Amino acid sequence: MKISAIGPGIMADFTKAIGATIQGRFIHIPESKGAGYITGFNWGNDMRMMIRNYYLKEDVFVEWTNESMEKQEHIAFLLSGIFPSLTKPDEQLLPEQANVLICRQLVSSIITMPSNTVFGSVTIGASRQYLQQLFGHIDHPVVASVLEAEDNFILETGISSQIINIASEMLHQSVPESIESHYYKLKCEELLCHTFALLMQRDAVPLSKMHMDDIKAIYAIKLRLQSHLNEAPDIASLAKEAGMSEPKMRKLFKQTFGKGVFEYYQSMRMQEAARLLREKRLTVSEVGYQLGFTNLSHFSRVFEQHLGMKPKKYSAT
């Protein structure tokens, strides 16, 4: 399904297109289309927030244009995969990748919602002025670059246990309706605090300007790594596919994800190993060989470096 949305009323267009019902501040996904809901708050020009907690039975693509954003200085924070699954264990649905994505809010974009994927995210749009009030005192190059960036940029980082805990509290809040708006604003500020804390753990490297083609190329590399976790990355081939020199590709990749190409690949590899051990209940040797390790002792060492325990012990927890 393709949906065209113009102006700030993107959710109204989405709601109408899928036949959703509205109850108060909640947009409920109809059973024929999936399950779950969307909700949110708006605090004027300072900040707005949207919670997505649903899945869809068919692919949805939203082409969104909002020229009113052109004169606004907003930064978008998309915290994905931070809610517990709203589905039953026997339902064959894919989890949304857990991460935090930060970028300048764009005048136009294409929002892709793959079918049978559980979306459990909080999106926060905050004005640069408001963010300066909250975090302008922080003396860190990455934080300063985010607050002062005039060109397109995109940063992605993992999530923390604190973010997961705050998200859970947002889903199960029990404050009176009269103070809900204030409650959620405080929770959004908490999420932003922990997001900036993650940024402060990065190497102190200022942001370089990224064209949209650069962003697309870097994310194509990420997808390539994700799709071939059993193959060590070939830097020269990746740079050639991206149409970049190796130094530029390495620099922009680390700027975006906070890790070098091989370090990021190894981290994703171990996350997948943990998932296979925990959810699929595969043996340690099955997981190791599936992910391209020929030496299981080496696999065990790498797993322990990333997860803090050996895979055999992890699978028994």
Give the key terms.
317 residues; alpha+beta; 12 helices; single chain; three-stranded mixed beta sheet; Arc Repressor Mutant, subunit A; Jelly Rolls
Brief synopsis:
With 317 residues, the protein is an alpha+beta fold. It contains 12 helices and 12 strands. The strands form 2 sheets. Strands 2, 3, 4, 5, 7, 8, 9, 11 and 12 form a 9-stranded mixed beta sheet that branches. The protein has a 3-stranded mixed beta sheet with strand order 1-6-10, with helices on one face.
Strand-helix topology:
Blueprint: E1 2-6, H1 10-18, E2 21-23, E3 26-28, E4 34-43, E5 47-56, E6 60-65, E7 74-80, E8 94-95, E9 99-104, E10 108-113, E11 117-127, H2 128-135, H3 141-148, E12 154-157, H4 161-171, H5 180-199, H6 212-227, H7 235-242, H8 246-257, H9 261-278, H10 284-290, H11 296-307, H12 311-316
Parallel strand pairs: 1-6, 8-11
Antiparallel strand pairs: 2-3, 3-4, 4-5, 5-11, 6-10, 7-9, 7-11, 9-12
CATH topology of the largest domain: Jelly Rolls
Total of helices: 12
Helix content: 40-55%
Q: SSE order in H/E notation?
A: EHEEEEEEEEEEHHEHHHHHHHHH
The N- to C-terminal Cα distance equals 42 Å
Low-confidence stretches: none
| Sheet of most strands | 9 strands, mixed
Number of DSSP E strands: 12
Q: What percent strand?
A: 15-25%
